[in-house]
Amino acid sequence: MELADRAVGLLLSSISLSIFTYYTFWVIILPFVDSDHFIHKYFLPQDYAILVPVFAGVTLLSLLSVFIGMVMLKSKKKKA
Questions:
Q1: Torsion 27-52-9-15 (CA) sign
Q2: 29-68: per-residue pLDDT in tens?
Q3: pLDDT recorded at residue 80
Q4: Which of 58, 55, 30 lies closest to 44, judged by CA?
Q5: Nearest CA among 48, 52, 53 for reference residue 30
Q6: Which GO cellular component terms, listed alphabetically, does the Swiss-Prot or TrEMBL entry include (predicted)?
Q7: What is the reported pTM?
Q8: What are the counts of helices (DSSP H) followed by strands (DSSP E) for the chain?
């Protein structure tokens, strides 16, 4: 079981690091590269640099709120 936990942890860390590297390059470095450079075809337009994290944050907060609400309702039913 410990080996499986390590594998999952390594996988999640690798995915997080690759997303962080991609986003950092997209937002910080790419605006200084010429717009006709070939590297631009691997990235979305700059408008999405704000929309994607905002959408992800709103989705995460919504799901977290629903989860907390369900837990609160279950605990209220147990007390009654």
A1: negative
A2: 999 999 899 999 999 888 898 999 999 999 999 999 999 9
A3: 67
A4: 30
A5: 48
A6: dolichol-phosphate-mannose synthase complex; endoplasmic reticulum membrane
A7: 0.68
A8: 2, 0
Single-letter amino acid code for the residue at 17: L
Among all chains, which residue has been given the structure tokens 């631009």? 40
Yes or no: say if 18 and 8 are a contact pair by the CB < 8 Å rule.
no
Cα–Cα–Cα angle for 74, 76, 80, rounded to 5 degrees: 115
Cα–Cα distance for residue pair 1/78, rounded to 1 Å: 33
Position 2 scores a pLDDT of: 83
Helix spans in the chain (H): 2-24, 48-79
User: In which element (H, E) is residue 23 found?
Assistant: helix 2-24
